[in-house]
Amino acid sequence: MKGKLVLLIIVFISLNCISQHKYKTFTAHKSIIDAIRINDEIIKGRTTFFEKQAEVKPLMFQKTKVRISELNRLSNNLSKYIESIQEEVNTEMILYELLEKDKYKTTLFKNNGNLTLKGKKLKDKIDSLYNCSVKINVHQLSQLENFYNDNFKTSARYYEYEKEINYFEYLFYDKSNYGMMMAMNCLLLDVKTFQLLYYGTVMSY
């Protein structure tokens, strides 16, 4: 009887730990998805407001309008590609731990650690956004420069326990399905955040 009671307690604790883990997993995912959605809504509002300003003073905002248009085009292009990969690997299956092990990893990385075609396409889109970000930072503002260098510079080198690693090894340091999914969510949020950051600098001039 005592042995059964101990067993029941162990099972209860195990189930409780699993449910706590699931709760944290779902909560973290929902939080970042909500942040992305809110940023999207703010970007739409800022874009509408800026376009109205540009209509009133077309000469004043002529060059800025071109810069914002290019930034939004490349940002949206990267965002849609990230979302398409998330949809392809099926984030819901990741959350319920139904996706086969390393499925996300093999979507972006080969067995030797190099990028797959999808991974290379992701890199190209990040590089395009980075180059655009440098180009449109005409006033060389440090807050913009720091942000795009920290988040979009794929040629950057990082160090992990004195070992040099590249941008993608740093971004996807956790190569589990869940870790890869959350890293992509963070990258998507960074894209939206930079759009808002740039709008903020434009509105201040």
Summarize this entry quickly:
The protein is mainly α and 205 residues long. The protein contains eight helices and two strands, in the order ααααααββαα.
If you had to describe this structure to a student in words, what would you say it looks like?
This protein is mainly alpha-helical and 205 residues long. It has one domain. The chain is 76% helix and 4% strand. The chain contains eight helices and two strands; from the N terminus they run ααααααββαα. A two-stranded antiparallel ribbon has the order 1-2. β1 and β2 form a beta hairpin. It is globular. This is Gliding motility-associated protein GldM N-terminal domain-containing protein.
* Count of distinct strands: 2
Domains (count): 1
Number of helices: 8
Poorly predicted regions are 1-23
- Give the amount of beta strand, in percent: under 5%
Which radius of gyration do the C-alpha atoms yield?
21 Å
Order of helices and strands: HHHHHHEEHH
Strand order of the largest sheet: 1-2
Outline the biggest β-sheet: 2 strands, antiparallel
Specify the overall morphology.
globular
The percentage helix is over 70%
Structural class: mainly alpha
**What is the overall pLDDT average?**
86
The N- to C-terminal Cα distance equals 76 Å
Fold blueprint:
Blueprint: H1 2-56, H2 62-89, H3 91-95, H4 103-108, H5 117-136, H6 142-151, E1 157-160, E2 163-166, H7 167-171, H8 177-203
Antiparallel strand pairs: 1-2
Helix pairs in contact: 1-8, 2-5, 2-8, 6-8
Give the tags.
205 residues; mainly alpha; two-stranded antiparallel sheet; 2 strands; 76% helix; globular; Gliding motility-associated protein GldM N-terminal domain-containing protein
